[in-house]
Amino acid sequence: MTRAARLADRDGIRDLPNDGALDPGELLKGEGALELEIGFGKGRYLLRRAAAEPRHRFCGIEIASEYFRLAARRLAHRRLTNLLLLEGDASYYATALLPRGRFAAVHVYFPDPWPKLRHQKRRLFSTEAIDLVAGLVAPGGRLWFATDFLEYGAHVRRILESYPGARVAALDAVWPDGARTNYEAKYIAEGRPIVRLEVEFEAAAALHPEGAADVLVAARPDASGAG
User: Which residue among 15, 19, 89, 112 is the active-site one?
Assistant: First the structure.
């Protein structure tokens, strides 16, 4: 799987532009608020929102090719002009392709928690990488997050509560619009507890204090003068 591969709109799937930048707002018609879902799966949430709110614009990123193709077919069938789907690694898009501060809202529902210690560096939410996600959100915008992995949910909440300019609210009930993903609908039916967070970012993104400290330590020259 390449880090970034293809995009899909109502006209079908095609390769990404080769100019090294990608602004969904320029590829979607209209001037409505722009929202992003990272890891959209089969597209349940984005397809529903795009159909119900034609004046808003929506974008999604999915690394699983089979889910990307499935959602792309559904998008083309419904001829939605306000939805753009991207195939590939969200971290790469956030780092290299998408403009910072572009989205009024970012949604991340049930990401892989990578519970094994040796895999946790792959997590989307960490003190070292949270600025990549937060950097996509416009000042005053929101991040919506959910997970059924309670330990990971507590970890994400701690990171966000200690992030500069972030106001975090934990929701004790289902979203007002109901289950937003197929996983969530399944877990609700099973009675499984779910961590749901709503985060407002009051200012432009910055490094997390703990992540910044790690960067400084890594960059500090050896006091002994050894190479």
Answer: 112
